[in-house]
Amino acid sequence: MILWGAYVRASGSGAGCGAHWPLCNGVVIPQSAQAATMIEFTHRIMSGLSVLFAVGLVIWAWRSYPRGSQVRLGAGLVGLFTLSEAVVGAGLVLLELVANNDSALRAGSVAVHLVNTLLLVASITLTAWWASGGNPVSLGRQGINSTLLVAALALVVLLSATGAITALGDTLFPAASLAQGVQQDFSPTAHFLIRLRIYHPLLAIVTGSFCLFLALRTRDRQKEGLAGKFAAALIACVAVQICLGLLNIYLLAPIWLQMLHLLVSDLVWISLVLLAAASLRQPPPPESSPSRQPPPREAVNLPADRGWGKPGPGSDGLQPLPETQKASRVCARGAGFSWGLESTGRTLPGRVRF
Length: 354
Known about the structure:
Blueprint: H1 2-10, H2 35-64, H3 70-94, H4 104-131, H5 144-172, H6 178-185, H7 192-195, H8 199-221, H9 226-250, H10 255-279, E1 331-334, E2 337-340
């Protein structure tokens, strides 16, 4: 759904259903065979399915987990951001902030739309983390580690917002060549969407360097844990994203590369969220100490007439033990119970009383 939404914007199909929502050109199922209509209508079908899946996730979490569970919290956030995602999308259509609209309101709206998408993806990621047994996240007592992780998350959100505005400028004001694009970026008379394009790659350098530093630092400290694995994934995603960004500039942002660039940016975001969850998780509660075993009883002397031993002559059919021999308490443990011989119980032939 996220990638197809980028295709709707890049192909200029946002007005394919007109200024109607949730209907498409005033009908439930459009009859028009225009490409823009089909592209926009497909995106709306995906959005509707995502709403159904979000509702199903919330119902499952509430039925499967107790009150106060982190899974319930994550599922609730998924439902909330899915609803806000639909509201923002509907606003773009109803206010006609689509197609060739180049206003500042549209630029701000697409940035808000993408930030909400990141929050939705983070909520889904954390819900899966907690449902898989991950511990709750705590910012307290984490020191500089929590500060660095929060800063990295904030930088990625800001970078993504500027990326949405840059992509909008590339769509509305495509450059014929790389040289022309650079010239437009520094022209004081160019449209503000063109002049803003220069800030995204600069911020990408800062954010990418910071994320690499954070990931390398975490991997060196926690090589064997989950945090180390997520740090390695973040390093790989950031490296690929930097290469795609450079290629995107060189090839003048073709649609397929914009979608691939967005996909890897989501993978960077997911890796960073999981790294933060693994690094800032609360320690597991201490295991209850095992109950202390009672001290063994002292050995007792069993009377000869009530002793036990090998079968032999006597009224009970047992051979009495000598009085000088001591019989210690016999204890067998199994299935959580213990059995001991009674020193005063009557000993029957061939068996003992428990």
